[in-house]
Amino acid sequence: MAFPTNEALERLVEPVANTHGMDVEAIRTVKAGKKSQVVIALDSDTHPTLDELEAVSNELSQLFDDAEERGEVNFGAGYTLELTTPGVDLPLTAARHFRRNRGRKVKVGDQLWRLGPLNADETQVALVRATKKDEEIRISSVSELSGAVVEIEFNAPLAAETLLADRAFEDLEAAATAGKENK
């Protein structure tokens, strides 16, 4: 049996992650001589703690060892399992990514926005930004923004921008519509 593909690993990992309320965000494998490496990025709405990642890691180690013993997978001479959370460089591609990063600054194309709330069915997201004199609100479909990336901020965000991002989606949508009508 060959070294498992990322898809095969995801099929093994996903049920365990789901029982812990987590999503599999990425799997990376490095096949090396004596020790291969399996790196799995997990996330959840509450962002996993080290203790929670350790519990999942223990379950996955046992699962992988049992699957290897049954001949379902082959990690070669051995493997190192590493569980992590996705970094800020993970492109936002799913509604859950936008929901989990609400209030953070994101780069959309060549513009910077702050993520506001999603609508009820999580198909649209409010993007906001504020200056000293004005506020800007943009409602976009999540699919349009696929690939947006979180920007690391070294300064505290503008209070007006934080207040905008904290507002309800319906309020921001109404404000965005009213703003278009006034122009």
TrEMBL record:
KW Iron (keyword) present: no
Annotated SUPFAM superfamilies: YhbC-like, N-terminal domain
Q: Which GO terms describe its biological process?
A: ribosomal small subunit assembly; translation
Primary localization class, coarse: cytoplasm
What Pfam families does the database record attribute to this sequence?
A: RimP_N
Known InterPro entries for this protein?
Ribosome_maturation_RimP, RimP_N, RimP_N_sf
Question: What GO cellular-component annotations does this UniProt entry give?
Answer: cytosol
| Annotated Ribosome maturation factor RimP N-terminal domain residues | 12-89
* Organism domain of life: Bacteria
Q: Is Repressor among the key words of this record?
A: no
Q: Which UniProt keywords apply?
A: Cytoplasm, Ribosome biogenesis
- Locations listed in the record: Cytoplasm
Among NCBIfam families, the record links this protein to: PRK00092.2-2
Question: Its family?
Answer: Belongs to the RimP family.
What does this protein do, in the record's words? Required for maturation of 30S ribosomal subunits.
Protein known as: Ribosome maturation factor RimP
Q: Which organism is it from?
A: Corynebacterium ureicelerivorans
